[in-house]
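Table 4 source record.
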Amino acid sequence: MKSYDVAIIGSGPGGYVAAIRCAQLGMKTAIIEKYATLGGTCLNVGCIPSKALLDSSHHYEDAVKHFEEHGIKIPGEIKVNLKKMIARKQAVVDQTTGGIDFLMKKNKIDVYEGLGSFKDATHINIAKGDGSSEEIETKNIIIATGSKPSNLPFIKLDKDRIITSTEALKLKEIPKHLIVIGGGVIGLELGQVYKRLGSEVTVVEFMDRIIPTMDAGLSKELNKVLKKQKFKINASHKVTSVKRIGEEVIVKANNKKGVEVEFKGDYCLVSVGRHPYTDGLNTEAAGVKIDERGQVEVNDHLQTSASNIYAIGDVIKGAMLAHKAEEEGVFVAETLAGQKPHIDYNLIPGVVYTWPEVATVGKTEEQLKETGVEYKVGQFPMRALGRSRASMDLDGFVKILADKTTDEILGVHIIGARAADMIAEAVVAMEYRASAEDISRMSHAHPTFTEAIKEAALAATENRPLHI
């Protein structure tokens, strides 16, 4: 039987990063993955493939709608080759997962393919696809098994017309009318992919606004932009029934007045969040506790009820984000090595990769009001930037929330072109507890989208933005 200092169950961003950091710190490391490719949901059926399709569909939309205005004339009709688009997406996935294979070899990490389950707190059984099994021994274990798409109890997913995000990434045709249940990150991103390619898209959201966990100002602006893009958005609608009849899907919902409404389409994407995945782990054998939400219980050190077993990523509390899982993977590895790492969960950014992109870090206005914190707001529209006019990306704004007394930045909320990249400046500033004035006094290259951050900081500091 092989023995290890640490074994990780699950090879998503949290798991494989934890394995690399453990190996860097001198630990003999193993990683166990039940699927044939490493990388988990993010690399195989999540972040990476969805961004590949978003980029491809964005190129198509630009060619159809914007090239002529830029003085670019393409002879003949511009057409979508969905099969080729999906194939390019898969090539990106294959290249990325192959890169993880290389990193495992480079760091001398043993990779086991099979379903890992606890025999006890120091032994893991690995059930392989051919029916055989193998057992390994390890001093420490990290659970990094991630999450799966959630569903509503009355919806029967046929994975053909009534689908999850996994199936939406490999459709064989462009839907005529895609009904998206859920106005969160995944539903809006995939909805925009197919809207650009020619689908009619209807979003049905239970809450009173889309992206409901983000700042209300972002929700309002994104709602406005998506409606301009001909999305049909139905907030405050409680779905009660999803049925397929032949090639038609019928969705019934009660609106905020309690009146039943009906939506008909040829595809329905069920995008109502994700839930922790612990199936087959046999956590009881190791003394690891699971709470009523299906999450693995951990303390501030990400330690489970079994002292040598840790858990990270989507399987524990907190935002289900790849970069949050990565931070936790490094945190546990460094804890095992006797170091004193830290994570500030308030400063984990969140991003929606629609166009315009949406990015946020820190507190929302709603959270500050709820806790009674006195704050000031600085906001600057993207359309006031020369860079925005040059690229024709005029929608959105940057909003900075700062403490009314100390001027410390409490939250930054961006909607606009390249918001996903711009948010890093806000994270750096907030990690060092910068004030709005600090940012307002920093030189920002011109012309860039990030000038909007400087202008919003000026608006928050002295209400004196320069360009509006």
